[in-house]
Amino acid sequence: MKKVVILACERIRNQNLCVACNKCFVAANKLEGEFARHKDEVAILGIMNCGGCPGNLVVPSLVLLSMQLASFNEKIDAVHIGTCIMRFCPNKDNIIKIIKEKAGVEVIEGTHTYGKGTIF
Ligand code: SF4
Ligand code: SF4
């Protein structure tokens, strides 16, 4: 089983545009989208926000997460960059670069692949 954390866009989460983050939970449970690579099972150990624009708080937040998980004898195998960030964040290239430099685990660009083809 792969244990992962999802990094989400704070603005999108705060405005409930993916209500209760249902899309990522559904995709992970069904091993769809970018979760398909995990093959047998994936456990989401957390969904954390970027900390708000421009995303400078990502690294300290990940450090805190790592420390807290360690207190439960847990460790993640991968960080998924949420589809919210991949599709809508103007700062995503920088955020992904920083995480890839610092994370020390696999960084996967994307989560669910659900979405309407056109607006209307
Ligand atoms: S893409 Fe995933 S992590 Fe981002 S807001 Fe939607 S459900 Fe939450
Ligand atoms: S930095 Fe990107 S991911 Fe974070 S709140 Fe701003 S737009 Fe969303």
Explain this structure to me?
This protein has 120 residues and is of the alpha/beta class. It has a single domain, classed as Rossmann fold, CATH 3.40.50. The protein contains five helices and four strands, in the order βααβαβααβ. The protein has a four-stranded parallel sheet with strand order 2-1-3-4, with helices on both faces. The longest helix has 14 residues, at 58-71. The termini are far apart. The site of one iron/sulfur cluster has 14 residues, from strand 1, helix 1, helix 2 and helix 4. One iron/sulfur cluster (SF4) binds next to helix 1.
List the helices and strands and how they pair.
Blueprint: E1 2-8, H1 10-14, H2 22-30, E2 42-49, H3 58-71, E3 78-81, H4 83-88, H5 92-102, E4 106-109
Overall mean pLDDT score? 96
The shape, in one word, is globular
Number of contiguous helices: 5
**Helicity level:** 25-40%
Unreliable spans are none
What compounds are bound to the protein? iron/sulfur cluster
Roughly how many Å apart are the termini?
Answer: 39 Å
Keywords:
38% helix; 120 residues; 4 strands; four-stranded parallel beta sheet; alpha/beta; single chain; binds iron/sulfur cluster; Rossmann fold; globular; 5 helices
